[in-house]
TrEMBL record:
It comes from Aedes aegypti. InterPro entries: Haemolymph_juvenile_hormone-bd, To_sf. This is Uncharacterized protein. Gene3D superfamilies: Haemolymph juvenile hormone binding protein (3.15.10.30). GO terms for biological process: circadian rhythm. Keywords: Biological rhythms, Signal. Belongs to the TO family. The keyword Methyltransferase does not apply.
């Protein structure tokens, strides 16, 4: 009589157990750029703030090659525009290839979380952001024809931002848990602003000086005009960057 071979249940079970232990070992090995918090810790928000600042420090200080993130600056925004006044003589300006430096020098000053629903609210401070861009303008400003093109520069001191993130979990190929960013919101304010234009074509020195005087005198109002587009673009950048982090750093490295 021919005896059928039995399914090797025991070896399969051993392999499954080994795989589970391997995944557990991976989760226990928190890398140097992370600080893991305990979800049941009454001070978990303070712990998450510490962890976020530690991760930011390593991202700022040369990046983290292990997760494929090396250069975090400059933050680049492709284009924004403003409009002051209406009619054919209304002032219009477009800013392209905006590069912002100093964003990574941020500090998390407050974190609020709902771990069960994976919702996080954060407040960050940035001492100074320097920006540069190419700009092109048309129309009338201060009763003067202000059409031209050139270089824009800006210095933004005392930047504060509030950020909201909602995420959901998924299991990676390595058996660990990762997060998908479902929703991102952000807003910001700036305490002091200095900005101006230079290397302007089709303008004499008097118009150039008048433009820079107007820009600096009305810097907060100009930022207010830029803000809706700028906030939308920065929210997209934030969403994409957080997704890059969450795709590369298991949730088990953040919380246990």
């Amino acid at each position: 009589m021919r005896v059928r071979s039995m399914t090797p249940v025991f070896p399969v079970a051993v392999l499954a157990l080994f795989a589970s232990l391997w995944h557990l070992a991976l989760a226990q090995q928190v890398p140097y750029y992370m600080h893991r918090c305990e979800r049941d810790d009454p001070q978990v928000n303070d712990c998450l703030r510490f962890a976020a600042n530690k991760l930011t420090h390593h991202l700022r200080d040369g990046g983290i090659p292990e997760i494929g993130i090396v250069d975090v600056e400059p933050v680049v925004v492709d284009e924004i525009s403003i409009a002051l006044g209406s009619g054919p003589d209304g002032y219009r300006a477009t800013f392209k290839n905006i590069e912002a430096f100093g964003v990574s020098n941020l500090t998390f000053v407050n974190v609020r979380s709902d771990i069960d629903s994976l919702q996080f609210q954060m407040t960050i401070d940035i001492p100074k952001i320097k920006a540069r861009a190419q700009y092109k303008s048309s129309g009338v400003l201060l009763l003067l024809q202000a059409s031209g093109a050139g270089d824009y520069w800006g210095e933004y001191d005392g930047v504060k931002s509030k950020i909201y993130i909602k995420a959901s979990p998924y299991q990676g190929d390595d058996g660990l848990t990762y997060l998908t960013v479902d929703q991102t919101k952000m807003d910001f304010s700036v305490k002091d602003i200095k900005m101006g234009v230079e290397n302007v074509s089709n303008q004499n020195a008097i118009i150039h000086a008048a433009m820079n005087l107007f820009i600096n005198t009305n810097a907060q109002e100009l930022l207010k005009e830029m803000k809706p587009q700028l906030r939308s673009k920065l929210t997209e950048h934030l969403h994409d960057f957080m997704q890059r982090l969450f795709d590369r750093i298991p949730f088990e490295y953040w919380l246990e």
